[in-house]
Amino acid sequence: MSSDNQWSAEEDEGQLSRLIRKSRDSPFVPVGIAGFVSVVSYGLYKLKYRRDQKVSIHLIHMRVAAQGFVVGAATLGVLYSMYKDHIRPRFFSESKK
């Protein structure tokens, strides 16, 4: 870090390195991103064969499915974090004593 508190290019973190760091901290972030992309891709593919369904209804269903996948991945990430930080140390550290 520079001493005069000015920004330098060496201190800036790139998008890819930020994503890699975040995925190490919480491994369900890439799962949520991949699920979101796959649901949206599938929904756009199925847009061609929607029969008599309106486009707006189809897009709303696709959005809800994608958001549901991301919320589910975030929930699993929080549960995993709670397990890793609170439950696992309590039960496995006592057995070593």
From TrEMBL:
Cellular compartments per GO CC: mitochondrial membrane
Residue ranges annotated as coiled coil are none
Q: What does the UniProt keyword field contain? A: Membrane, Transmembrane, Transmembrane helix
| Pfam families noted in UniProt | HIG_1_N (PF04588)
InterPro entries linked to this entry: Hypoxia_induced_domain, RCF1
Outline the extent of the HIG1 domain: 1-92
Localization annotation: Mitochondrion membrane
| Stretch forming the signal peptide | none
Provide the GO biological process annotations. Answer: mitochondrial respirasome assembly; response to hypoxia
Give the transmembrane ranges.
28-45, 65-83
Q: Which PROSITE patterns match?
A: HIG1 (PS51503)
Q: What is this protein called?
A: HIG1 domain family member 1C
Q: Source species, please?
A: Macaca fascicularis
